[in-house]
Amino acid sequence: MIRFGPAGIPIETPGERSTVAGIEYCGKIGLGAMEVEFVHGVNMGEEKARAAGEIAQKSNVLLSCHAPYYINCCAKEPAKISASVKYIVATAQAAWWLQASPIVIHPGHYMGRPAAECKKLVNSTFQRCLDEMETLGVIGVLLGAELTGKKSAYGSLDEIIGLSEDFGLKQVMPVVDFAHYHAREARLKTFEDYSRILGKVESHLGSKAAKSFHCHFSGIEIIDAGERSHLPISVNSPPFEPLARAFAENGWEGRVICESPLIEKDALEMQKAYQKIAKQG
Predict the structure, then answer these.
(1) pTM for the full model?
(2) What is the mean pLDDT of the chain?
(3) Which of 9, 57, 116, 271 has a CB 3.0–4.6 Å from the CB of 4, allowing a cystine?
(4) The dihedral formed by the CA atoms of 145, 217, 60 and 16, expressed in degrees to the nearest 10
(5) Which alpha helices (H) appear in 206-240, and where do they start and end?
(6) Degrees to nearest 5, angle at CA 143 with 96 and 80
(7) Residue 255: what pLDDT?
(8) Closest to 111 in 3D by CA, of 166, 174, 154, 68
(9) pLDDT for residue 16
(10) How far apart are CA 75 and CA 86, in angstroms?
(11) Do 22 and 50 meet the contact criterion of CB atoms below 8 Å apart?
């Protein structure tokens, strides 16, 4: 089973646009997931987070979180690395209160350096985060290394798979953003294009990766540097239907988080398309 949900509070959430209201609205309209966006900072306390987590349980909505955008796990300055650890651990703490996992992280930027050098720094930073999380008793919250859309950013498909290989799926999981892949690595058009990505993830990380997959999807505007902005799925760039078939025919399970500007509308459209294909067998 694949669950679908929005990246953030649904646009048409009635009344106050709060996390709790957004979760309830997702459940009401039939979506089974939602990503809580901490992209501009973690500003949710324990009481509020625990209450939202309880509502998610009652609404049958699985939660994940997105860490702040300004994280750079391979920064050149030690102070920036330390700040990134602080933001990631704060996100993980909030996620633990929310009963949410994974926390999605943009790993960092090459800044003119070889990928191997950045890999060492990202691994070291992730380990610091995991150590601090353990000290705080934050258990069961996975770090989600996102496939990044800019060619200047650390986070290719191979790099995020490599992070999961290094730490194991119990600590770090790859978060494939298919729009980012489409902009950064290769254009996605066919069932075979998507199946190759899923096959690579499963061949490196095992069948468990196919049963707890977490990904992002939207349309994308592309420039020479990679992504420029997320677009509605109606632009069909990349197309969703072949991915839905790849999920259904290969028996994958997990969550698809919609980062289109039409977050819940397009999440519902993708869910409808996937369920139609799944029913066809």
Answers:
(1) 0.97
(2) 97
(3) 271
(4) 100
(5) 207-211
(6) 100
(7) 98
(8) 154
(9) 86
(10) 14
(11) no
Is 33:255 a contact under the CB 8 Å cutoff? yes
CA distance 171 to 140: 8
What total of structural domains would you count in the chain? 1
Give, for 227, the enclosing helix (H) or strand (E).
Answer: strand 226-231
CA-CA distances (angstroms) from residue 44 to 75, 83, 144, 240? 26, 18, 20, 33
Model pLDDT for residues 61-70, shown as the tens digit of each residue: 999 999 999 9
- Give per-residue burial for 35-64: e unless 16+ CB within 10 Å, then b: bbbbbeebebeeebbeebbebbeebebbbb
Domain that holds residue 165: 2-279
DSSP codes joined into one string, 56-105: HHHHT-EEEEE--TT--TT-SSHHHHHHHHHHHHHHHHHHHHHT---EEE
CATH of the domain at 167: 3.20.20.150
Report d(CA 107, CA 127) in Å as an integer. 13
**Nearest residue to 169 via CA among 131, 120, 211:** 211
CA–CA distance, 21 with 215 (Å, rounded to integer)? 23
CA distances from 88 to 8, 67, 92, 146, 151 (A): 18, 6, 6, 13, 23
The CB-side HSE value for 46 (13 A sphere, CA atoms) comes to 2
User: Rounded mean pLDDT of 125-147?
Assistant: 98
